[in-house]
């Protein structure tokens, strides 16, 4: 079945350093969504990418969707302590049999002040 | 304010008992979902519903049951057949299937 993997599983950075997490799907995705879950909280939707090669920015966050629509990345410039949490990608496949949103394994970001 | 309400926040049960987790949304969303999250793990899909009176199994449906009698409600029953029920349960909804999800605050279930 469809699998969505993220690397790294865990990243510890000093405040001000950059951070990148990568998301790789075993199948082509119709779109990719990114979520952030603070410790003890629930996932919160950040952004959705739909087009092949699409790049979107939200302040210090840059999201990319791969040309083949099987991978994506999230880059945070100059991390802050408020960026702490687990970042998940999620994507549905194409076709009726893949009519469900599959979440990636997540990347836990720790930021040391 | 529109949103998703899960109750209770913490739930404790004895092994062998069925327990029902509540999920209500007032966002007028068609699709609703139940995910399970274990410590340090990702989210695994239990059941989802695209429309009232219809639902499909996710990846880990065994030992769980759901109903979708009303658009705004999607309760999850954890039955005694679920071998490892202790987990964090998250309910979510979206405008339509696979649109961005709005999550509830979750219910932490502990079974001893």
Q: Short summary of the structure?
A:
The complex is a heterodimer of chains A (113) and B (112). Chain A is mainly beta and 113 residues long.
Can you walk me through this structure?
The complex is a heterodimer of chains A (113) and B (112). Chain A is mainly beta and 113 residues long. In chain A, 0% of the residues lie in helices and 53% in strands. In chain A, the strands form two sheets. In chain A, strands 2, 4, 5, 9, 10 and 11 form a six-stranded mixed sheet that branches. In chain A, 35% of the residues are buried. Chain A has strands spanning 4-7, 10-14, 19-25, 32-37, 44-49, 55-58, 61-65, 71-76, 85-92, 101-103, 107-112. Chain B has 112 residues and is mainly beta. In chain B, a hairpin with a 5-residue loop joins strand 4 (31-37) and strand 5 (43-51). Chain B is globular. The N and C termini of chain B lie far apart (36 Å). In chain B, 38% of the residues are buried. At the A-B interface, strand 5, strand 9 and strand 10 of A face strand 5 and strand 10 of B.
Main beta-sheet strand count, sense and barrel state of chain A? 6 strands, mixed
Compute the number of strand runs of chain A. 11
Q: Please, what is the oligomeric state?
A: heterodimer
For the biggest sheet of chain B, the summary is: 7 strands, mixed
Provide the helix percentage of chain A. Answer: under 10%
Please trace the helix and strand order of chain A, writing H or E for each element. EEEEEEEEEEE
Q: Terminal Cα separation of chain A, in Å?
A: 41 Å
Average pLDDT of chain B: 94
Q: Keywords, please?
A:
heterodimer; A: 113 residues; mainly beta; 6-stranded mixed beta sheet; 5-stranded antiparallel beta sheet; 11 strands; 53% strand; globular; B: 112 residues; 7-stranded mixed beta sheet; 4-stranded antiparallel beta sheet; 50% strand
